[in-house]
Amino acid sequence: MIYKRSSALFADAEKVIPGGVNSPVRAFKGVGGTPIFVKEAKGAYLYDEDKNRLIDYINSWGPMILGHAYKPVVDAVVEKAKKGTSFGMPTEIETKIAELAVSMVPNIDKIRFVNSGTEACMSAVRLARGFTGKDKIIKFAGCYHGHSDSFLIQAGSGASTFGTPNSPGVTKGTAKDTLLALYNDIENVTELINANKNEIACIIIEPVAGNMGCIPPKDGFLEALRNLCDANNILLVFDEVMTGFRLAKGGAQELYSVYGDIVCFGKVIGGGLPVGAFAARHEIMNHLAPLGPVYQAGTLSGNPLAMAAGLAMLQELNTDAEVFNRLAEKTAYLHKGIAKVLNENNVAHTINRVGSMISVHFDEAEVIDFETAAKGNNDTFKKFFHGMLNAGIYIAPSAFETWFITDALTYEDLDFTIAAVNKVAKTL
Ligand SMILES: *Cc1c(COP(=O)(O)O)cnc(C)c1O
User: Fold this and answer.
1) Which atom of ligand 1 has the smallest separation from the CA of 119?
2) In CA terms, which of 12, 38, 78, 318 is 20 to 30 Å from 376?
3) 411 noted as active-site residue
4) Given phi > 0 = left and psi -120 to 50 = alpha, else beta, which region is 271?
C-alpha cells in the first residue's frame, strides 16, 4: 500500500502539533512508520488520504460499535446542529439521555455528563474523596483512567509504599495519594488496604481491563473487591469507559453481576462525539455541586450535539435485543479463526476475549496482569501490525491495546481478516 499523502500530511502536522498528533498512540511510535490520515469512514471501513480501504478493528477506540457514519447517529447530530450548537443552558435532551442511561445500567440513580473519559474518572475520584472524607485511592498497574494527574502513577517499591509519578509534571504530593495494586491479585489489594487503614477513599478499576490488551477479571476477583470495599468503607469505582454499553446494556456490571458505587462512562456513550459521564446512587451523586459541596462543572458539558449522538446510539443499543450477542459471536468467530491459523503456523500466542473486546498477545503464557502483558514479543507484534496494515486491516498501533469489534463487520470481513493473519503469520 502507498501512504504518500499520509506521509506528507504528517510532515505538515509535525510542524504545528507536537509529534503531529493530538493523542500520542496515533503517532505509531509503538510500531514504527508514519501514521495514516483518515479521509472518511463508513460502516466497518476506513478510507485514508491515499484512497486505501482498511477494515477497522479500532473504531475510534470503541465508540463506533455500530460502525462509522451510522445513519441514526449522523441524522440526529445534523438535525440538532441546525438548531444551534451550544447554549450553556439546560436542554431537554440531557434529561432524555440521562433517563435512558439510568434505565439501561444497573445500580445507578443519577448521572452527570462531562466531555471525556478522563474527566469522568477524575471527577469520580474527587466525588469519592468528598463523600468519604478520605484522600488516598488504589488503582491497578496497567489500568488506564485517562490522563489526569492522580492516575499517571507507577509502582514504588513494595506493596505498602506510595506510587511515584510516571510523567514529569505530576507532583510527588499527588503521587503519594495513589497506591498501585496488581490486577487480579486480591491478596495484594488486601495488604494495601491493611497498610493504609481508614485512609482509602476508593478503589478504581477497569472491571475488564482493556488498556493492557484485554484482560478479564479472574473468577471471584470483582466480588472479592466488592467485599473488601464494603468491609472497609471504601467506594468501588468501576471505570466502564471502555466496557460500558459495549459488553452489555449494563456493561461489565450486568455481565458479572457485581456493582460499583460510582461508574464512569465514555466512548460508546457519546456515539463518536466527545462525551464522558459518571453515575452513582442518589446519596453519592447528591454530594455534587450544586446540591452538595463537591465541585464539578463544564461549559460544554451536556452539549446538544454530543447528547444527540449519544442518545441516538443508546436508543439503538437499547432496542436491538440481539446486538450484544451478535457482537460477541462475531468476536468469538474471529478468535477461533485467528487461533487456528496462528497454531498452524506455530506462532506463540495467547488470545484474550470478553464480549466484543479481543487482543492477540505474542507469548504463550496466560495474560492476567500488567507484568504478564508486558512479556509479549514486541518485535513480532510490530511485524504483525505492518503485515496486517499491508493487507488492508487496521489494528491498534500498540501491543497494549484491545481490538474493538463493530457490528458493521460482516463474516466476509472476518474471513478476509483470518486469511490475512494466516499469510502474515508465515512472515513472523
Ligand atoms: C479511554 C479510556 C479512558 C479515557 O477516556 P478519554 O475519553 O480518552 O479521556 C478512561 N478509562 C478507560 C478505561 C478508557 O478506556
Assistant:
1) 9
2) 38
3) no
4) left
